[in-house]
Design a protein that fits this description.
The chain has 407 residues and is of the alpha/beta class. The protein is built from 14 helices and 17 strands.
């Protein structure tokens, strides 16, 4: 069981107010708040160990490198990668997914090959493969969703062919909160010789990552949704694949030998970390993984599911509230209030000190599937309380009353 009083003290921002109201932060799916442990870990580098990594021969440079490579080892353990060499630090999930599409997809796909993806995808997962199809002549195919909007193994089978070379999909939908059957899909892909790319941005804060058990070829996480800093992510890739991929970015420290006519590059992961990497960010990401593991996955899950169930029940009592994912597997709830645009409702939440997301959530194909221009999204996390849900519900009722007078 989580000690909510202690946890909330870890997140100093929760003592702040918004519009003179206590802050109720329900937008963790967009970016999570940062605990003191993460900030302090980054401060060690920024205040005591600042130096570039893999370069200086002086002591401070060596200590900074040890912190950075120690972070890689921690993240590798968090993902249960077979080797630290399978972890590439990136500037976030977006860069990680683009790296795979560019360095693997553009160099390995050709006309006649098929890329499978879904309407559930965040644009960061969808657009890179749309571009690969455009450039290479490969075909981009959608895996049909079931009536709930879920990705199922059966529906993957319905479009999987001998020409399938890539399956790119999310572990957890950032709009619907559904958990995909990752292990089954990866096994289906293997049987066809296809490569799997898993966007785990929304999964990493809520579910243990085990890339070896999942059997995926690539999996990407981002620090800022995992209580870590912005501008930092990590890509897991099977070493045999990574080490045969061309770099996406060229520059310092990723090279082996540079000559006028041609150059050679270091082995993975270094060949993908050109220039000065997000050193403090990687250290912060590693600290964040330790923080959630110390809390315990079962404790996190039980707390978040209790909030989800309570929120679904309370919002369901309000006439005119449509919930688009009543069977959500995670603490993400997407909904609208009949007759009121999500952006208008969001202003009411803001006045009441409540942070929610309103918009298409970087998932426009899914909005079209839902037949909605936009939705509201409340996402709950380890620091949220039942009182936060009560405030959300009161603000929803206030919004109905306010706009009822207008319309």
């Amino acid at each position: 069981m989580l000690d909510l009083t202690k946890i909330r003290k870890d997140f100093k921002i929760l003592t702040e107010t918004m519009n003179n109201k206590p802050l109720v932060y329900l937008d963790s799916a967009a970016t999570a708040l940062k605990p003191t442990a993460v900030l302090e870990a980054m401060d060690v580098y920024n205040m005591k160990k600042t130096a570039n990594v893999h370069r200086g021969v002086y002591q401070l440079g060596a200590e900074a490198t040890d912190l950075y490579e120690g972070a890689r080892a921690t993240v590798a353990k968090f993902m249960n990668a077979a080797s630290e060499r399978e972890i590439v630090f990136t500037r976030g999930v977006t860069e990680a997914l683009n790296l795979v599409a560019t360095s693997y997809g553009l160099h390995n796909l050709k006309p006649g090959d098929e890329i499978l993806t879904t309407e559930l995808e965040h644009h960061s997962s969808f657009l890179p493969w749309q571009n690969v199809a455009k450039v290479t002549g490969a075909t981009l195919k959608l895996i049909p969703l079931n009536e709930e909007g879920r990705l199922t193994a059966e529906n993957v089978k319905s479009v999987l062919t001998e020409n399938t070379k890539v399956i790119a999909f999310n572990y957890v939908s950032n709009v619907m909160g559904y958990v995909a059957p990752v292990k089954e899909i990866c096994q289906l892909a293997k049987e066809k010789g296809a490569v799997t790319i898993v966007d785990a941005a929304q999964a990493a804060p809520h579910l243990p990552m085990d890339v070896q058990d999942l059997g995926c070829d690539f999996l990407a996480i981002t620090a800022h949704k995992l209580y870590g800093p912005t501008g930092t992510g990590a890509l897991y890739g099977r070493f045999d694949l990574l080490n045969n991929m061309e770099p996406m970015t060229f520059g310092g420290e990723m090279i082996d030998l540079v000559e006028i006519e041609a150059s050679t590059f270091k082995e993975a992961p270094m060949r993908f970390e050109a220039g000065t990497p997000p050193i403090a960010g990687a250290i912060g990401l590693a600290a964040a993984t330790k923080y959630v593991e110390e809390l315990g996955w079962d404790n996190i899950h039980n707390h978040e599911m209790a909030l989800r169930d309570y929120a679904l029940a309370e919002l369901g009592k309000i006439d005119g509230v449509t919930i688009f994912n009543p069977t959500t597997d995670t603490a993400i709830i997407s909904f609208n209030v009949d007759g009121i645009h999500p952006h208008d409702m969001a202003t009411i939440y803001d006045v009441n000190g409540v942070c929610v997301r309103a918009g298409h959530h970087c998932a426009q194909p899914l909005m079209r599937w839902l037949k909605q221009p936009a939705t509201l999204r409340a996402s709950f996390s380890i620091y949220n309380t039942k009182e936060d849900v009560d405030t959300l519900v009161r603000a929803t009722i206030a919004g109905k009353e306010t706009f009822g007078d207008v319309f």
